[in-house]
Specification:
Elements lengths: L1 H13 L3 H79 L2 E13 L2 E6 L12 E3 L4 E8 L4 E5 L6 E6 L5 E6 L6 E2 L3 E2 L9 E4 L11 E10 L5 E8 L8 E6 L3 H4 L22 H4 L1
Antiparallel strand pairs: 1-2, 1-13, 2-5, 3-4, 3-13, 4-5, 6-7, 6-10, 7-8, 8-12, 9-12, 10-11, 11-12
């Protein structure tokens, strides 16, 4: 006890034992380090496990959020595309200058024997048989059957459809007939010396009483010489996007009441257009 009191007095007054304390601290450091390792290891493991679980949870949340954002982005792109199409249709309605109604496609049939679409507007909206139908670019076809809620539209590429047209460049009138192919119309029985060129725009001529004059129809893509016939082979590609349009324009060019008497043909057959089809050549039948 006396020794301890003497050491304490000497250290407190003259600090003669600082070097002893430093030496003992250095010697005891490994013991302190080893003693602290279990708790330090426990804290490290706990931190790592908590961090890993947190990262997994955050990763799961981010994946879910990313999936939701992708879904919203797809919807946004669809709405953006629909908005663009509707703006195109609105612009087309201003161009045609007639009363129009936007309709959506419910069903599409594009096989070689039947090319028609079903739209979601009918007699409840004033739609009538024989009514012209356009998309944002050109003529698509005409209504051939109608009920209160829907209407059937025969496309201009149907093999039973014939449309009076004229070449916009020179005013030459002819008839464009469907071929059963969604990307092709035919101009039959044009003499080989006819002034027809690839790239000529075909527009409705106004003949037949269904389509008014000046509506775009197609653009000529082929003018060929048939050595076995006095007529040229002239094919055109429709300007309307028949296989891609989602909305169409129903155009009022006549009073529906006046159109009603001609709305159906005897026996329930669908009226196509009031222009007789020219008999097909033997090679066409084959």
């Amino acid at each position: 006890m006396l020794l301890s009191l003497g050491l304490m007095f000497a250290d407190a007054r003259d600090r003669h034992l600082d070097w002893v304390r430093s030496t003992l601290a250095v010697a005891a450091y490994p013991i302190h380090w080893l003693a602290s390792q279990p708790s330090q290891l426990a804290r490290t493991l706990n931190s790592r496990l908590a961090t890993e679980a947190d990262l997994r949870e955050r990763n799961t949340l981010l994946e879910h959020e990313n999936l939701a954002l992708k879904g919203r982005m797809q919807r946004f792109l669809a709405l953006q595309s629909e908005n663009s199409r509707l703006r195109d249709l609105l612009g087309s309605s201003f161009k045609v200058g007639d009363r129009v109604l936007v309709a959506e496609l419910l069903q599409v049939e594009l096989d070689p024997y039947r090319q028609q679409v079903l739209v979601n507007k009918g007699t409840a909206s004033g739609v009538y048989v024989g009514q012209p139908v356009l998309d944002a670019h050109a003529v698509m076809g005409q209504v051939i059957a109608v009920n209160p809620l829907t209407a059937t539209v025969l496309l201009i590429t149907d093999a039973d459809h014939a449309l009076p047209v004229q070449i916009n460049r020179n005013g030459l009138r002819t008839i464009a007939t469907g071929t059963g192919l969604v990307n092709q119309l035919r101009l039959p029985h044009l003499p080989k010396n006819t002034d027809v060129r690839v790239g000529d725009l075909l527009v409705t001529s106004g003949m037949g009483g269904v389509f008014p004059a000046g509506y775009p129809v197609a653009r000529i893509v082929e003018v060929a010489d048939d050595p076995n016939s006095p007529f040229a082979i002239v094919n055109a590609e429709p300007t309307a996007r028949l296989d891609r349009s989602h909305e169409v324009l129903l155009v009022w060019t006549v009073d529906p009441v006046q159109a009603t008497p001609n709305a159906a043909t005897p026996g329930g057959a669908h009226p196509v257009i009031s222009v007789p089809r020219v008999p097909a050549r033997p090679e066409d039948r084959s």
